[in-house]
Prior knowledge:
Layout: H1 4-15, E1 20-21, E2 26-27, E3 30-37, H2 49-54, H3 56-66, E4 71-78, H4 83-90, E5 96-100, H5 101-111, E6 119-128, E7 134-138, E8 154-157, H6 162-173, E9 183-186, H7 189-197, E10 203-207, H8 210-216, E11 221-225, E12 233-240, H9 241-246, H10 248-267, H11 269-280, H12 284-291, H13 304-312, H14 314-319, H15 328-331, H16 335-343, H17 349-354, E13 378-382, E14 389-391, H18 394-406, E15 411-417, E16 424-426, E17 431-435, E18 438-442, H19 445-454, E19 459-461, H20 463-469
Amino acid sequence: MKHLVPLVLAAVLAAAGCSLDSANDTPEGTVKVVVGYQSKTINTVTAGTLLRAQGYLEQRLRRLTDAGGSKYQVEWQDYDTGAPITAQMVAEKIDIGSMGDYPLLINGSRTQANERAKTALVSVTGYNPKGALNMVVVPPDSSVAGLDGLAGQKISASVGSAGHGTLVQALTRAGIDPAKGVEVLNQQPQVGASALESHQVGALSQFVAWPGLLVFQNKAKLLYDGAELNVPTFHGVVARRSYSAEHPEVLEAFLAAQLDATTFLRDKPFEAAKIVADGSGLPQEVVYLYNGPAGTSFDVTLKPSLIQALKGDVPYLKSIGDFAELNIDGFVDDGPLRTVYAQYGAGNYDTALASTVNPSRIGGTDPVCGRPVGESAGEVWIEGAERPQPAADATCLLRAVQQAKSQGKVVRAAYIPDAELGTRWFADKSIWLRDGDAYLPFTTPAAAQRYRQSHPGAVTVGYDQAVTEVRG
């Protein structure tokens, strides 16, 4: 019987007027596109998890088919990091992939020797202008208060990743030789998370969403905020040039679909966070930390500042012996994206390119303090509410939490920007200082200490204490 199944299938297909390509089981005459993405690297969601869940790419391709074009088949492949996506692109088995900035460079470097595998950087998914997408965390009971306390310790990182690159730069600035002053264990994020929890390593340096996830789960505390480097970090999309040349309409459909996903995320960030949480297995509270307003800047344009930062990453990659010389200006290709902007009514590309404002911001009026919100705004997510409510500043956020608790309501999460660096973070995981009547949150002990040095009257208070004592 098992030998008859292929014959029967072939007969059915023949009767239907089609056949299967024996190499990839794709019906003859159908154009296949293989997309590699990272469901848990949630700053790639507009080219991955959210894009896939909403079906935007399939919808765009179906329009081409309905207009008399070819039929298309999309295959999605989910990975933990960018390295296996690059390996599959080298093998010509993935056509379009998304990953972080350091892996993007490695991708361009490793694929360039083969014309069929050679890739181009065609869009950005999301970025942080200061580098806050990468962080170093330590166990909750760690006594280490700064990077200098990691000297001589084992640190988990995915070598070649953006998280590892941040670690190398941060240690160097702290006067620690990243090659000799610490022992870096090359581990996948989930392996490193287990190593941190079991105290096999003293710290873990990773990209989003791992630091936020571990801190949210009370399995780690934040030691170093990548925003201290003040160097942009981003995630983007690469496409095989040979595939794009053969099927330019597919790449254009992908970029148009990415714009669809980006617009949806900007317009409905809370709903988008739920979709991404369902698709990635991450808690919605963690997804919303990064994908919510005032978090990651979701902007597809290939900004000069990001490309310049990419060039600045090259010395790190050379230092780990993982990089063949790459013409970065030649690697970046905004032609297809410009075409999509022009043809799909996405607006003026150059105007979007020049903008440095986070397109997703917290708006509205603080219902507790009764005033419009601005750049220092946070959000309070109360269980059962339709969506998080805005808080004008850190002190107003504490008042909102105090009010909710006095009414017997459960606060699922509260988000507030760091008073120094502006990084959006969990309010209950922040380091809090009281300076007069004002309350100030910081992502790390080091940031709080820097403030205290210039404001000797500021005192440390616990989050619960701050919620209890804040004046209404």
